[in-house]
Q: What sequence folds into this?
């Protein structure tokens, strides 16, 4: 499997190309975002419905990590 | 008059319930679904002074003042947020409207500020390039109307008002008949069920004017004021056909409400995708960053439009004991409190703060024959 590099919160990670981003975050125990009251949030439904897994990808806010495949150079910003 | 039945537990019905209950009237409010679930929940909750005629300006201004009083102690209860309205001018013709609008507001001592292009972009940098200017009306605000409706009802309940769930099938003299067979009696009946009033009183000159709205994810600080196109009134008050007008609201939590659209005589809840696209394209034209926002939900609501754009507030011209507070079109949140007060003033023979004449029920179909 081809390995690529993405950046999560400024740190470089090596992942298999086309990995699911929500799975990568989960594997690395990184919270996707914070609720209004400051609690950590991560993917729940895994199919683009619940909106819990929102992250900023390449400066674009509110992208659903569970619907994203990792690609070379992708910059992911969470609210850790 | 010692008892009253109010048909419709939207923001208008709840406001009337509080006005009457506070005055010692024994109030029964009838709601079909749940409080504040109709047009009350569907609209933007914009408390806005509108200047399409003296009567509209006075009713909306009076409404705004009553909202300020209602929300003063606990603004959070209503999600009250004084974001102001910024009317945006795209060309020389609309720039002329800015001056005219400002003159009207100033004449009524309503604070407003004319913004040239530089000032406009200083206030709202997300607006597209090439605009001419705008008019900022800082006292306009937003609320979350279903919360306010419930709050008004809870206050009415403290004055012994009663809530009955049911669907009103017909109105008789001093009584209403529910679809489950129950009959309720009172000295006065108040119709406050929005566009559905014509199901009970087909003679009323009320037409459905359906709208669609979109709500987005949270994008705090993208915009700060409710942004409305200056030709809004022109676009919003065509008397036939489908139309859209740019109207963008920042919710206090950073979400954006994107409007607006109008379709006559439609009451179904099916989204018109083509009209929605037109509406969104217009919004993106004004605020290009909207092209990248994530929309969460879209829905429809039905405004109750009267021929002259003013609500009907007062006694039914042909039926003693039957009172109306309907036809608020797109301004029902702003005018809920003022219209309720003016209706109660009439029912209780109190002096009213405004000249009632322009709002008295009129234009019934029998009268026209």
A:
């Amino acid at each position: 499997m081809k390995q690529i590099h993405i950046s999560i919160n400024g740190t470089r990670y090596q992942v298999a190309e086309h990995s699911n981003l929500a799975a990568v975050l989960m594997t690395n125990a990184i919270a996707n975002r914070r609720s209004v009251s400051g609690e950590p949030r991560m993917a729940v439904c895994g199919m683009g419905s619940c909106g819990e897994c929102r992250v900023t990808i390449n400066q674009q806010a509110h992208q659903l990590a569970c619907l994203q495949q990792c690609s070379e150079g992708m910059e992911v910003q969470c609210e850790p | 008059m010692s008892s009253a039945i109010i048909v419709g537990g939207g923001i208008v019905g709840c406001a009337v319930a509080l006005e009457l209950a506070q005055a010692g009237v024994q109030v029964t409010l009838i709601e079909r679904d749940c409080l504040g679930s109709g047009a009350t929940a569907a609209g933007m909750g914009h408390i806005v002074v509108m200047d399409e005629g003296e009567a509209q300006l006075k009713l909306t201004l009076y409404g705004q003042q009553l909202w300020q009083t209602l929300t003063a102690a606990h603004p959070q209860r209503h999600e009250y947020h004084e974001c102001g309205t910024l009317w945006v001018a795209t060309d020389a013709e609309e720039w002329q409207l800015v001056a005219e609008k400002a003159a009207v507001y100033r004449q009524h001592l309503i604070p407003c500020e004319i913004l040239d292009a530089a000032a406009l972009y200083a206030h709202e940098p997300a607006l597209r390039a090439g605009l001419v200017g705008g008019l900022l009306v800082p006292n306009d605000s937003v609320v979350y109307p279903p919360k306010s409706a419930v709050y008004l009802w809870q206050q009415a309940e403290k004055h012994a008002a009663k809530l009955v769930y049911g669907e009103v099938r017909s109105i008789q003299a001093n009584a209403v008949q529910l679809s489950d067979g129950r009959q309720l009696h009172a000295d006065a009946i108040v119709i406050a069920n929005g566009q559905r009033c014509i199901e009970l009183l087909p003679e009323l000159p009320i037409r459905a004017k359906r709208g669609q709205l979109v709500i987005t994810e949270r994008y705090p600080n993208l915009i700060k004021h409710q942004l409305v196109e200056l030709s809004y009134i022109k676009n919003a008050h065509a008397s036939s056909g489908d139309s859209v007008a740019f109207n963008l609201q920042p919710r206090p939590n950073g979400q954006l409400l994107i409007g607006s659209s109008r379709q006559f005589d439609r009451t179904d809840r099916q989204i018109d995708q083509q009209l929605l696209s037109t509406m969104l394209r217009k919004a993106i034209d004004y605020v290009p960053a909207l092209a990248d926002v994530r929309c969460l939900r879209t829905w429809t609501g039905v405004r109750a439009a009267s021929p002259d754009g003013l609500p009907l507030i007062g006694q039914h011209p042909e039926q003693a004991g039957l009172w109306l507070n309907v036809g608020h079109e797109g301004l029902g949140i702003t005018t809920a409190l003022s219209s309720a007060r003016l209706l109660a003033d009439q029912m209780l023979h109190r002096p009213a703060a405004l000249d009632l004449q322009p709002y008295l029920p009129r234009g019934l179909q029998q009268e026209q024959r």
